[in-house]
Amino acid sequence: MKLTYYGQSCVELEFDGKKLLFDPFITGNPLAKDVDVNSLKPDYILVSHGHGDHVADLVTVAKNSGAKVICIAEIAGWLGKQGVDNVHGMNIGGSFKFDFGKVKMVNAVHSATLPDGSNGGNPAGFVVYTGSQNVYFAGDTALTYDMKLLADENLDWAILPIGDNYTMGVDDAIKSTGFFNCKNVVGVHYDSFPVIKIDKEEAAQKFQSAGINLKLPEVGQTIEI
């Protein structure tokens, strides 16, 4: 599986000929100034919640690519008003089988209003089951005991926010890995704004000391996971 990082929480997973893009926020992120948003052609877009730093480029990418958007029901309704009809609405605790595998929507502890003030429903995360790997995309979340419910999901990788202030920081992200039994982490949601800037060297040392394999790809970089 290939993972490409586009800054903030925007990552793309590519496997078995399919591309899954999460939380497209590129044009408003100065760290992603070299990424051409119009070049993104995912098959699916998964949206964790409605904040601008997760949906700013959602409508553009959806219309350019024709991708099916997977999101909570309230965002699905909002997208219809934006002229995006290829949408699969879900809610927390539900799962659905797509042509690439299964997706389960799981709880996240955050807020979720859309940029225009519309109701964004509840924030969420996703577990993606591909048949060969199980990947947890936590979305924006605090550390929560609900993560313990994922302990038996045989997670291969977890994509976790580590920037603090708005979400978990490094220490709570490390603690969360013990809740859901995963030793491989891709850190996201950091450095885009001054209040979520982190010391990447210190973060790497803390994860290493905890026995956790942390990946912090550069914006635009593709890694194998």
TrEMBL record:
One MF term in the entry's GO annotations: hydrolase activity
Alphabetized UniProt keyword annotations: Hydrolase
InterPro entries assigned to the protein according to its UniProt record, in alphabetical order: Metallo-B-lactamas, RibonucZ/Hydroxyglut_hydro, UPF0173, UPF0173_UPF0282_UlaG_hydrolase
Keyword Hydrolase appears in the UniProt entry: yes
Record domain Metallo-beta-lactamase: where: 7-189
A Pfam family it matches: Lactamase_B_2
HAMAP family: UPF0173
Family that this chain belongs to: Belongs to the UPF0173 family.
Name of the protein: UPF0173 metal-dependent hydrolase C8P68_102685
Source taxonomy: Bacteria, Pseudomonadati, Bacteroidota, Sphingobacteriia, Sphingobacteriales
